[in-house]
Design brief:
Elements (H helix, E strand, L loop, with lengths): L1 E6 L4 E7 L6 H4 L8 E7 H17 L3 E7 L8 H13 L7 E6 L1 H13 L5 E6 L2 H7 L4 E6 L2 E8 L4 E5 L8 H18 L1 H16 L2 H21 L15 H10 L8 H18 L5 H13 L6 H4 L5 H8 L10 E8 L2 E8 L1 H12 L3
Parallel strand pairs: 2-9, 3-4, 3-5, 5-6, 6-9
Antiparallel strand pairs: 1-2, 7-8, 10-11
Helix pairs in contact: 3-4, 5-6, 5-8, 6-7, 6-10, 7-8, 9-10, 9-13, 10-11, 13-14
Cofactor: Co(2+); Zn(2+); NAD(+)
Enzyme class: lyase
Keywords: Amino-acid biosynthesis, Aromatic amino acid biosynthesis, Cobalt, Cytoplasm, Lyase, Metal-binding, NAD, Nucleotide-binding, Zinc
């Protein structure tokens, strides 16, 4: 069991990484849980797989449980989903001093965290992430949001959890595609600031993605430590340090929008493809060597993740995809900042990408074979 402290200007909390944490939630999170009834937000898939274990653990700790179950997928992160959850929290009588539990992947964590941020002007919440992507990235750092017609995560708040329990055992039931999608975020931490970890990812991807619990725990712990250090410097993305965590996301979010925020392209898959595009665009601008971009492309591909825009087969041209990038929440004055690479392990913020050039680059990538 590893314990990692996260300290930000607004809150300090602990992330616990290990096995069997759901069974021990009464002991590990007891000080945070209401004495009478614990409100848990989850999706239908997670409840079917792990709901009985969580309920048994909470019942054993003397707590009753109330479930709010949403449909799996990005569709839950909507105005309607937020309204339904907010009304439910009010009906349940959740007090400002209470903590609700987000038991699921990134969608559940984003939705429950945002609802907690606005419930009676802010109540607490605990993250129990059930996917690799959520464990290594979205459950830590306090970003919460829903999607809107304007784009992904455009409405939200920074609201830090009181505690994060990353139970490695929960990954055993994760579909292979979801596990691989989460591994994209693991690779990201190597690309933005740790070449040695990127090489670790390339060497250990097959075993980690198979069934090696020790490697999974090592990856989760490493990524959380890296994110904790970044968030401590830049909680709300004001100085640029935290912006590096968006490597691949500006391209990726546009591609998610182009595919209708559907199962056709999972978030982690979009990030992987976005990182490959960021590397290739860095080459176009003369920032990154072709050899480095090819190494990145190969590692992404060998991890079973998409690295070719042409292979995605979307019916859109470069101009249309670039226009979707303008909906990125970091865009300002018609300019879109991109996270690009100088080397593997050295990312930087390119503040005002030329969208006409980006569109031309994307047209080339759409036709590449």
């Amino acid at each position: 069991m590893d314990r990692i402290g996260v300290s930000t200007p607004s809150a300090s909390y602990e992330v616990i990484v290990g096995r069997g944490l759901v069974d021990a939630i009464g002991l590990l999170a007891g000080d945070f849980l209401p004495e009478a009834r614990v409100c848990v937000v989850t999706d239908g898939n997670v409840k079917a797989l792990h709901g009985a274990a969580l309920e048994a653990a909470l019942t054993g700790a003397g707590r009753a449980i109330a479930w709010h179950v949403v449909d799996p997928g990005e569709g839950a992160k909507s105005w309607q989903g937020l309204e339904a959850l907010s009304d439910w929290l009010l009906e349940q009588g959740v007090a400002r001093g209470d903590h609700i539990v987000a038991f699921g992947g990134g969608v559940v964590g984003d939705l429950a965290g945002f609802a907690a941020a606005i419930h009676k002007r802010g109540c607490g919440f605990i993250q129990v992430p059930t996917t690799l992507l959520a464990q290594v990235d979205s459950s830590v750092g306090g970003k919460t949001a829903i999607n809107s017609a304007a784009g992904k995560n455009m409405v939200g708040a920074f609201h830090q959890p009181g505690l994060v329990l990353a139970d490695i055992d929960l990954l055993d039931t994760l579909p292979e595609r979801e596990l691989r999608a989460g591994f994209a975020e693991v690779i990201k931490y190597g690309l933005i600031g740790d070449r040695g970890f990127f090489e670790w990812c390339a060497a250990n991807a097959p075993a980690l993605l198979a069934d090696d619990h020790d490697l999974r725990g090592e990856a989760v712990t490493h990524c959380i430590r890296a994110k904790a250090a970044i968030v401590a410097k830049d909680e709300t993305e004001r100085t640029g340090a935290r912006a590096l965590l968006n490597l691949g996301h500006t391209f990726g979010h546009a591609l998610e929008a182009a595919t209708g925020f559907s199962d056709r392209l999972l978030h982690g898959e979009a990030v992987a493809l976005g990182m490959a595009l960021a590397a290739k665009y860095s080459v176009r601008l003369g920032c990154l060597s072709i050899n480095a971009a090819q190494q990145i492309d190969e590692t992404i591909g060998l991890s079973g993740l998409p690295s070719s825009l042409a292979a995605l087969g979307i019916k859109a041209n470069g101009e249309a995809i670039a226009a979707l990038m303008l909906h990125d929440k970091k865009a300002s004055g018609g300019k879109v900042p991109l996270i690009l690479l100088r080397e593997i392990g050295e990312a930087f913020v390119h503040p005002d990408a030329d969208l006409e050039d980006v569109a031309a680059f994307l047209d080339t990538e759409l036709q590449a074979h």
